[in-house]
Amino acid sequence: MIELIAQNPILAALVALVGLSIVFGALLGFAAEKFKVVGDPIVEQIDELLPQTQCGQCGFPGCRPYAESIAAGDVINKCPPGGQSTINAIANLLDVPAPELDAEHGVESEVKTVAYIREDECIGCTKCIQACPVDAILGAAKLMHTVITDECTGCDLCVEPCPVDCIDMLPVAETIADWKWSIPAKPGQMIATDRRGEVSPAVHNEDAA
Amino acid sequence: MSRTWVTPGGVHPPENKHQSLTQPIGQLPIPEKLIIPLSQHIGAPATPCVEIGQQVLKGQVIAQATGVVSIPMHAPSSGTISAIEHRPIAHASGMLAPCIEITTDGADTWIEHEGISDYEHISPSKLIEMVGNAGISGMGGAGFPSAVKLNPGRQRPIDTLIVNATECEPYITADDSAIRERAGEIIEGIKILSAILDHPTNIMIGIEDNKPEAIAALAPHVEDSGISVVVFPTKYPSGGEKQLIYILTGKELPAGKLPADEGMICINIGTTYAIKRAVIDGEPLISRVTTVTGDAVGTPRNYDTLIGTPVRHLLEHNQFDEQAGGRVIMGGPMMGFTLPSADVPIVKTTNCILAPSYAEIPDDDPAQPCIRCGMCAEACPVSLLPQQLFWYAQAEEHDRLEAHNLFDCIECGACSYVCPSNIPLVQYYRAAKGDIRKAREEKVKSDHARERFEFHKERIEQAEREKEAKRAARREATQQAKADHLAATASGGAAPSAPATATPASAVPSSSAADIIAAAQARAAAKQANPEDQRAKLERTIASAEQRLKMAEEKLAEAINDDSGKQDKLSAAVENTRQKLEQSKSKLAELAE
């Protein structure tokens, strides 16, 4: 046998190659089983990106059901609280083009809001408490209710059920603690005369447009 | 002379320090109003402990520290509290923050205060307490509460104390002039720090070689004291904490680590002076040396300024020419920011008020596109890739920014300084950092909201399940009873003692009547099945039986007295009640078992 192989270089090469492929194939197969990485399920990843307001504006009862629906092939532009940035993030994750927000489900609001109950008008009907998806409203039957501002996601689901219309959505005021620098105008968007307000930015923007 | 190391990058902007060093540290008249922001430091804002209209003396506490990482505030001069409200403060946003306003009375009367001279014999914790009570926070820039920094709750002992006298930013000479005039007190402060830190083996004052007078002033005081003055070549930014530590020790502080993790403490030289005043003289931190400079002021110089002095007061006493320059910058030209108004007060971290003329510091030229020249990367003292960060910041790619260590950027401005395209790079990094921090906060909030939503859902479902279970149990009991009943009627013929079936009209038990009976039985069974209910019921029975027994016995006693012939009847009733009571009691006992 050995002699036969030694005399036949083609056969020797074949045996060596087949032998090597069997060994490496087995090795790779073993590694694939042994070091199998269970990927993060896509629903979890989408749910991570959604804003968790649980507002239901997408038509689903909460963020997770919508994430499940997206994973099953639904469109990704039904989330107004998340806005374009969330759509972009999901598009990035799923590797699909990012569409504009579907206006049918609402518009992206510029400012974050929280619910505020005008307490002297509250009749204590508990309807808003039942509507709140994150249990952020405190109160009892026939007693005044109030919103725990820190827990409110601003979903405005409590506004509609209120029979006396005593819930307002108030914008959250920016404080020094959460102020941040803004990105400067991109290079090339400003010319020398813009510097000291010699040409007002508004005029310049119109020109640019 | 000990060895020094050289940091990467760095720039050499014109120093412009000589202008403000021609005169000694000056004193200003006490301003009419002092505005003391409650948050001049890193950590929780102080809580006011005075009322409007209250008289305060110089050095009196007007706001208490809130929690551990906070500092108290003191009245910088005597007077009346005239307002506690939101005022514009020295912040790039131009927003308002809570402040206490004092209308000064000009008398400048001190509150009673007393220091200690033999600090060597006082426990470090007592000394740290004194530093904390004096409201001292780092005076170099960030304003971290000094007492927290010195607190010994750390894993390893401090073997190196570094005093930062670098003052590398152009124009600023506050530390330089303070060292020239107060070297003795500063060294005293360092000795107190040494006592607090249990005498570290290595005490160094790091100072750039552009301050020969200050170095000469320190020399006589450090002889035989174990403190070494380390002089190194001038380069911006050498005064950053991590940069200075590298220059003096050759140790690179890992990202996210504090100097204390490596057995080092780095403290600003102005802070050491404040510590000396606090311990030896018992005076809180109510004033600091501030440089007023720039071509738009008459005489650039340093002032010993009361905390809370409006910037306008400083400028007005220095012939500020508003025409020459419109801007007032707090801090230096590299890291400072333009003040929204001159009414903001000087705070504990204000080392410089710069009022340049337009000729001196012209407005930034408009930014041109990045040409990838790489000069910013050469200038970066932290060895980051500024142009790369710039691209990612523009594209708002937060993951990439973090991967490129954006958060190690010290915002020194060296990259913007060398950029031939005039791109305001640091502003991009600040904005990106803000965005990332906000995104992190929102992530925490949304995770929290998800948790609450899931709990809410779980709770609703739980309630629903319980209701459903009850319903099912009832249904099952009904069916069981019905089956039993049917079985009984089928085998035994007539229904046992069923009044509904006893009526002649319905000799054949109608199914509806059987249903009703079965339901009633099921209800009874369900009630009995619940031992709690049963016990309550029995207890009620016992209580009422006892009462009845009592009444019956009374009646019996009456009857015996009257001799009315009802005795037999009544005694039988009493016996009967007693028996019932016994029965109930034994049942209850059974149930309890």
Automatic annotation (TrEMBL), chain A:
Name of the featured protein: Ion-translocating oxidoreductase complex subunit B
Hydrolase is among the record's keywords: no
EC top class, as a word: translocase
Segment forming the signal sequence: none
Cofactor: how and how many bound: Binds 3 [4Fe-4S] clusters.
Residues bound to [4Fe-4S] cluster 2: C122, C125, C128, C162
Entry cofactors: [4Fe-4S] cluster
Domain called 4Fe-4S ferredoxin-type: residue spans: 113-142, 143-172
Originating species: SAR92 clade bacterium H455
EC number, as in UniProt: 7.-.-.-
Keyword set, alphabetical order: 4Fe-4S, Cell inner membrane, Cell membrane, Electron transport, Iron, Iron-sulfur, Membrane, Metal-binding, Repeat, Translocase, Transport
Primary location group: membrane
Residues annotated for [4Fe-4S] cluster 1 binding in this entry: C55, C58, C63, C79
Superkingdom classification of source: Bacteria
Family the entry assigns: Belongs to the 4Fe4S bacterial-type ferredoxin family. RnfB subfamily.
Transmembrane segments: none
Chain segments carrying region Hydrophobic: 1-32
Compartments in which it is found: Cell inner membrane
Its biological purpose: Part of a membrane-bound complex that couples electron transfer with translocation of ions across the membrane.
Domain 4Fe-4S: 38-96
